[in-house]
Amino acid sequence: MNEEPRKRRAGGRAGNKLRAGTAVIDQMPWRIPVNPDAPVEPLDAEGVLRIHKTAMRILKEIGIEFLNPEAVEHLRRAGCRVDGTNVRMDEEFVMEMLSKAPSEFTITPRNPERELVIGGKHMVFVNVSSPPNAWDMERGKRSGDFETFKEFMKLTQYFNCIHIAGGYPVEPIDIHPSVRHLDCLYEKLTLTDKVVHAYSLGAERVEDVMEMTRIAGGLSEEEFRAKPRMYTNINSVSPLKHDFPMLDGAMRLARRGQPVVVTPFTLAGAMAPVTMAGAVALSLAEALAAIALLQYIAPGCPVAIGTFTSNVDMKSGAPAFGTPEYMRATQMTGQLVRFYKLPLRSSGVCAANVPDGQAMWETSNSLWAAVQSRTNMVYHAAGWLEGGLIASPEKFVMDCEVLQMIQRYFEEATFATTDEDLAFDAIREVGAGGHYFGCQHTQDRYTTAFYAPFVSDWRNYEAWQQGGSVWTPERAHRIYRQILEEFEAPEMNGDHAEELRRFVARRKQEGGAPTDF
Amino acid sequence: MNEEPRKRRAGGRAGNKLRAGTAVIDQMPWRIPVNPDAPVEPLDAEGVLRIHKTAMRILKEIGIEFLNPEAVEHLRRAGCRVDGTNVRMDEEFVMEMLSKAPSEFTITPRNPERELVIGGKHMVFVNVSSPPNAWDMERGKRSGDFETFKEFMKLTQYFNCIHIAGGYPVEPIDIHPSVRHLDCLYEKLTLTDKVVHAYSLGAERVEDVMEMTRIAGGLSEEEFRAKPRMYTNINSVSPLKHDFPMLDGAMRLARRGQPVVVTPFTLAGAMAPVTMAGAVALSLAEALAAIALLQYIAPGCPVAIGTFTSNVDMKSGAPAFGTPEYMRATQMTGQLVRFYKLPLRSSGVCAANVPDGQAMWETSNSLWAAVQSRTNMVYHAAGWLEGGLIASPEKFVMDCEVLQMIQRYFEEATFATTDEDLAFDAIREVGAGGHYFGCQHTQDRYTTAFYAPFVSDWRNYEAWQQGGSVWTPERAHRIYRQILEEFEAPEMNGDHAEELRRFVARRKQEGGAPTDF
């Protein structure tokens, strides 16, 4: 264990308050955004029902492969038809299980002021998760390592618009897989005070993360189980398959009352039908099957459905993101997930290799689709490139500007119609041909009336040119470097920190987790 | 008159058919997009009414300055209260005048296959209009000139997703203002066969453009008047003022049955209240005043309301675009304009100086706001930078990718739920763990199932790197250069072309238009 980060953290500011960040940028305060818009609904009621019925037919007539004997045994006991690993379930069972799931739940990390609401109109943002590689303007593309992992954790903590320290922003391949989760979670839990996530990649890893989360929060086992403290996200092996470790991890979390997000990766034309409604139906069938299992073994456990339905490039078969088809799939999934009364996860994604125009129109498309589908949890909301193969700090900073704009877009002030907003008196006062810069109505509101960007440059061309003609990614790069320089880790109770270090040391001595699966 | 373009045009392909473009890129065919989405409506019914009532109070209690004696005289006769240039009108009069305006109309350019529908759920895209400057990757920023003007006209014609050759993409300052409109319209009418626009900048200019449009279409005066053939867009001088030439041009068009779009430029915090609802109310009052005038002098003439309500930068007072406040203002205006049963114009805009990430997130925000507000006519949909001070060909190409994605997003195929779309049989056929690349359901649809981009690069990083690591603006630059090289102008009837040239020559000899206003 590298002790160096600890020393740096010892200089952290006192108090448990949510800092608005250092002086690097003037960012919006921490909040849980609430999406006031009616969702965009491409499907009519019949369309919703047709996708639902198709998902039910898939579950009943084709069935799902559960590559986990324990899961199969549970489902057999629940009355599902089992044939080897194939499990068929009928609508009645699925809907009964769904009725047990909460439509909304909280997750409370070690800093209770960072508690999140998942569901309803709430929308939270997760850092980029799971790219094997990093890219930045200075170093180009390279494999993920632990130092880069920590850089992204600092960005995750720094930005108030990022609510969750999700999966590893990059895979730190310089740490042995057997102990990687220990080092990574240690950094996650000490460099951030936000909700953390566990990969469902084997019993030991999952249990270690739950235990570390419990320790970091200074919780008894009873307190830990009492409400959601962290979560996992599992993917099916589309089409129609759930693998052993994902199901194992999901069941472990469900039993301890911790949330499970089930996110099939159904790429239309590859592992799902080439037609979007079919890809959505397949995705839902896979998600519902796992959720039915979890509600059977732990009735009422918090769950959410994730959508990762996109399409391939027609020429190469490569995955594409932020496409029109992606947007519609996300909206349709949103409609069905509301029909099932569950929280929804989607993503902020693109296929671009560098943080340029394409990256931002694809990411904007996917983020607006998240808004339109009333997504509750936006994965990869900051930092994602190359279809998830690259995490980029410049993209992280740029995405946070878009996320902040979405947060501001949600604020009622932007569409309020009180007398003060309608400003009739100011309009009469200024009259024809005047200007509003000086009037009292403006003076009273000027500093907070509009969104203030931190990476966008709104100067005119000549001023921008005099400032060095700096394009967006380079501006983002400078901000990212400065954030790292001035970063201060959040405070952590010394006893909890000590216990966490002891736990990591002990588990490392024991050899960590097996790596042979 | 430079005769060189004519020779080139003589090589144009025969036939009146709509070409899908040359082989430079594989673009979507010409179409009038129809927006199937329910609009995003931040206001409830009471909010709509509150903005409406505020607009009506502005018109009744404060009044609008009409700096055009003829307009004032019409409105006096209509029963409005006139005090010098100040005209006050009451709700009853305004609503009666509005009731005469069509909610939807067509515009038919010289090529009748390019006829447009303005209103309802239709959405058409206009090229960037009126920047004084151009910027491209090779030449940087420079003043607009005639050659650059022609370049943009070729792009406007080339892209099927651009429906209207609107205002000048750049101001060609190397052409004397007295004859500039003659040269520009000649190029517009011969390099494109799409709907054109007239600036309302003096009687002679407006009449010349109408006359040239009539000649280019080979129309009698009666045929020209019979339906919309071109249009103008007028801006108020916010707050609360309409100037002489804009009103003069608008009235000239209305009398000949040609559409007028009224677009106040209400920048919240500068020439409009700092609160968005107030800025929208002011904008609507200004637009409705002009529309009431036009409906009084030419009942039933086609009109539309444009929104250009955005906010300033709180630090510098510079205009900002594509902001959260801009989006909400556009959506709110959409609600009110539907309340008035008129077509809506908005824009594709940004404050960025170069076609980078910021440019594309700001433009995406404004274009999605156009979709969400059910905008019928999207100005500056391709090519706009620096708050409208720069037209960029790279940005033009990049924007067209986004516009095409919006067109594809509108297609029912992306959210259809027929049995074929639900693909249950294919899901059964492929089963668990298989893939969909090879199945018949995919094979039958593969080539048309998904949006195919022309400037986005969906290759992985290594393939992209081997291809030269080309970022989006550079790819767009290459496409733009190639389009210009291979451009072929649309065919034009030889007699009409000859008459057009004679008209231009004669009007130039007469001195063109006065330049002293």
Automatic annotation (TrEMBL), chains A, B:
Organism the protein comes from: Paragemmobacter kunshanensis
GO terms (BP aspect): methanogenesis; methylation
Known EC number: 2.1.1.-
Name recorded for this polypeptide: Methyltransferase
Pfam families registered for this protein in UniProt: MTTB
Protein keywords: Membrane, Methyltransferase, Transferase, Transmembrane, Transmembrane helix
InterPro entries xref list: MttB-like_sf, MTTB_MeTrfase
Residues passing through the membrane, by range: 260-281
Enzyme class: transferase
UniProt keyword Transferase, yes or no: yes
Family according to the record: Belongs to the trimethylamine methyltransferase family.
UniProt GO molecular function: methyltransferase activity
Source domain of life: Bacteria
